[in-house]
Amino acid sequence: MTVTQAPVGFARAFVVPDRVSPAIADLIDHVRPSVVQVRSGGPTIEDIVREELRPLLKAWLDTNLPPIVERLVRAEIERVVGRVVP
Length: 86
Prior knowledge:
With 86 residues, the chain is mostly helical. It has 2 helices and 2 strands, in the order ββαα.
């Protein structure tokens, strides 16, 4: 595995694999404006995390919630009716 120094402006003490370095640089560039806002009285870290997680959580719920609800509703119907629902 090849390694390089982290991008300029990033903590230079970190050594990261070449294939990871661009991803870290992109992440730092994406988060940097938020950090500047926090330092200048902007949103809290919790606000930033909430906003960053919202699309991830929405995607997970859109994918996984319908099957979970269907399974639970089917189990409840089977419990109430007393027989297996096809």
